[in-house]
Structure formats: structure tokens, C-alpha cells
Design goal:
alpha+beta, Nucleoside Triphosphate Pyrophosphohydrolase, four-stranded mixed β-sheet
């Protein structure tokens, strides 16, 4: 079974980083908003793969110790293939620029903006909302530690 890994970067205001996927009919979920991520290579740990995907797609670097697990589950892609999904939560440092190296657009969205998107991948919305709620409930002291 293939493993999809992702990272949701958050800001203290609860906004989360999402990507508008390419509008290419040959990819899964074309022209839909999703988490940042991709497939794990066989030789990688899931954490290292998630860090690689984040840097490849956005240019943003996060230290491995700053990531924490958000969700681990399996889902069925269009066409029926089952995929393991491991997504991590990470804080945005407010310093590094976020680039759109893959997809049409990458930006931070509030929970309200997420809920109003007509083209968000349905399995991603609950975990993005969860990430937003965690960011909002994290204190400044917890962020510094």
C-alpha cells in the first residue's frame, strides 16, 4: 500500500496552509484545494518524506522536531486504490517565504474560508479544521517550547 504524507503549517490565528492542485485531468483531485504533501519513497521515514514534500512544494523548511502527528488513517482514492495517509502539524515561523513550486496556488486560509471553498478535497477538510482548532488553542508559552 502506498503512503501519502503531508504537513499542515499553522499560524497562531488558526489559519492553515493549503494548496490548489494543478488543473490537470491526469492527476488525482485536479483543481481542488488540499494539504501540502505527496507520496513517501520506500527508503524514507514518513517524517522525512513530509519534510521533503513541504520543502519541494513551498520552499519552506521545518525542523523535524517541530512536527507533531495530526492524523494517520487510510482512504480510497478515485478509482478504488487504498492509500495510507500520515499528516503532520507544524508551526509557520512567520519568517520564511512560502512559494508555489507545485500546484496553482498555495496560501493560508482561515477556518471560515476553508468551509466556503467549493472545491476542497472532502477528506482534507476535517483534518484542516482540526489543525486550525489546535493552532487557536495553543498558547504562546507552548509555541516557544
Amino acid at each position: 500500500m502506498k503512503t501519502y504524507v503531508g504537513v499542515v503549517l499553522t499560524k497562531p490565528d488558526g489559519s492553515v496552509l493549503v494548496q490548489l492542485r494543478d488543473d490537470n485531468p491526469n492527476i488525482d483531485y485536479p483543481n481542488q484545494w488540499s494539504t501540502i504533501g505527496g507520496l513517501k519513497e520506500k527508503y524514507e521515514t514518513s517524517t522525512i518524506a513530509a519534510l521533503r514534500e513541504l520543502e519541494e512544494e513551498t520552499g519552506h523548511r521545518v525542523v523535524e522536531g517541530e512536527l507533531r502527528p495530526l492524523i494517520e488513517d487510510t482512504f480510497e482514492k478515485p478509482g478504488g486504490e487504498r492509500v495510507k495517509r500520515i499528516v503532520y502539524l507544524g508551526p509557520y515561523d512567520g519568517k520564511q517565504q512560502i512559494n508555489t513550486n507545485e500546484g496553482q496556488e498555495i496560501r493560508f486560509l482561515s477556518q471560515g474560508e476553508l468551509e466556503s471553498l467549493p472545491n476542497i478535497i472532502n477528506i482534507d477538510l476535517p483534518l484542516l479544521k482540526k489543525a486550525s482548532e489546535i493552532a487557536l488553542s495553543t498558547t504562546d508559552v507552548e509555541r516557544e517550547n
